[in-house]
């Protein structure tokens, strides 16, 4: 009971922060350009708190699943000289873009904070080569820095792992930097299976490369209540590797900023790749998750180490920012597209027509949300499918 309440509380806080940051982006940019803001609300539905400012009504609403920054003349014609419609196209573009931009900046800040407790971090520089993989005997050697796998540019170790997951065990061109030179060769990644078997006394760990055992280890079983659920079971962790131990480097302020920047780009890439795979049908539509699923995942993360929760929050806020930039009616991306068309044609779409587009898009988004929620509920009763 208490855990369920805690999950809901944490989820509400996470949603509220992400939405507040997004709407504050629109709000602050509008104020910067002297555009009149009539209402600024966090949440949807009934008002539970409100305060009238000099010209803006601030409110907090009961359902923490949305929010809005209502500007004069945004969705209707207005003669007010400070209305959204009267502002130059580039000012309106910045105001609309600011919400998503601030979500992405929030993700960057969280990633930056998460680097602080880290003493060392893995790089893409080869420290040693696993002699049981195809990297052994290749042109690559310790000290080389992996910069590209196939068409994917590699900045951080997470990029490397993501690229290998996509090429799996197919030959791929690998590029590395050695001093001022570039080294390139086609390498076939190795399928690595780590098989865990749990008993009362120990955890048995077998490492297989392409089905051949290359290492066998054991470690003492932890004396915890949670471990009792694992006894008598086994599991396999599969990944594709080039076969090298990465060189670690000390975390400095410069390194932390660099990693936070590239981790933000990495998560943006994940969003777009996931959408691409969904459109192509490589990911079934049944895997699309909605608010219920997100709340469930937030609840699980809140029971773990705090870094897991904050990593999830960073991912979600970057996801929110990127999704809002898609050129879909009712999302910021569609508004940005309309403004750009106006800038090129020098003709503005009538506010009433833009309102119809927004309404249609909103209805479609609600349908998608209902479908995603249905998926979440099914998973709650049947368990997550892998």
UniProtKB/TrEMBL annotation:
UniProt domain Peptidase M50: residue ranges: 11-367
Q: Which cofactor does it need?
A: Zn(2+)
GO cellular component terms, semicolon-separated: membrane
Annotated localization: Membrane
Tell me which Pfam families the record gives. Answer: Peptidase_M50
> What GO annotations for molecular function exist for this entry?
metalloendopeptidase activity
**Spans traversing the lipid bilayer:** 6-25, 93-114, 306-326, 356-374
Main subcellular location of this protein, as a coarse class: membrane
| GTP-binding listed as a keyword | no
Query: What are the protein's UniProt keywords?
Result: Hydrolase, Membrane, Metalloprotease, Protease, Transmembrane, Transmembrane helix, Zinc
Q: Which Gene3D superfamilies does this UniProt record tie to the protein?
A: 2.30.42.10
Bilayer topology term: Multi-pass membrane protein
Single biological process term from Gene Ontology: proteolysis
Identify its protein family: Belongs to the peptidase M50B family.
Record-given protein name: Site-2 protease family protein
Q: Which organism is it from?
A: Candidatus Aphodoplasma excrementigallinarum
């Amino acid at each position: 009971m208490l855990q369920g309440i805690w999950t809901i509380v944490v989820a509400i806080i996470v949603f509220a922060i992400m939405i507040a940051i997004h709407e504050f982006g629109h709000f602050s940019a509008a104020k910067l350009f002297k555009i009149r803001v009539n209402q600024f609300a966090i949440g949807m539905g009934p008002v539970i708190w409100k305060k009238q400012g000099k010209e803006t009504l601030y409110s907090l609403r009961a359902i923490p699943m949305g929010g809005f920054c209502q500007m004069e003349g945004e969705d209707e014609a207005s003669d007010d000289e400070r209305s959204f419609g009267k502002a130059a196209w580039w000012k309106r573009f910045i105001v609309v873009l600011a919400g998503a931009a601030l979500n992405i900046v929030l993700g960057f800040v969280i990633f930056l904070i998460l680097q602080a407790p880290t003493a060392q971090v893995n790089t893409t520089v080869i420290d040693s080569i696993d002699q049981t993989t195809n990297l052994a005997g290749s042109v690559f050697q310790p000290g080389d820095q992996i910069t590209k796998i196939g068409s994917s540019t590699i900045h951080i170790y997470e990029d490397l792992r993501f690229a290998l997951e996509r090429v799996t065990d197919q030959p791929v061109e690998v590029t590395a930097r050695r001093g001022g030179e570039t080294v390139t060769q086609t390498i076939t990644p190795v399928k690595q299976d780590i098989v865990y078997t749990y008993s009362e006394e120990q955890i048995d760990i077998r490492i297989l490369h392409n089905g051949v055992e290359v290492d066998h280890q054991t470690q003492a079983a932890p004396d915890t209540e949670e471990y009792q659920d694992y006894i008598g079971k086994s599991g396999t962790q599969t990944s594709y590797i080039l076969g090298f131990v990465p060189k670690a480097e000390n975390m400095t302020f410069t390194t932390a900023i660099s990693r936070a920047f590239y981790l933000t780009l990495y998560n943006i890439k994940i969003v777009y790749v996931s959408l691409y795979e969904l459109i192509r049908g490589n990911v079934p539509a049944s895997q699309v998750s909605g608010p219920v699923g997100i709340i469930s995942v937030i609840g699980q993360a809140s029971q773990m180490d705090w870094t897991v929760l904050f990593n999830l929050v960073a991912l979600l806020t970057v996801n929110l920012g990127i999704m809002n930039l898609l050129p879909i009616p009712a999302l910021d991306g569609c508004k940005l597209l309309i403004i750009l068309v106006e800038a090129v044609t020098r003709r503005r779409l009538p506010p009433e027509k833009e309102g119809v587009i927004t309404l249609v898009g909103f209805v479609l988004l609600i349908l998608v949300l209902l479908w995603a929620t249905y998926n979440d509920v099914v998973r709650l009763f049947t368990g997550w499918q892998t």
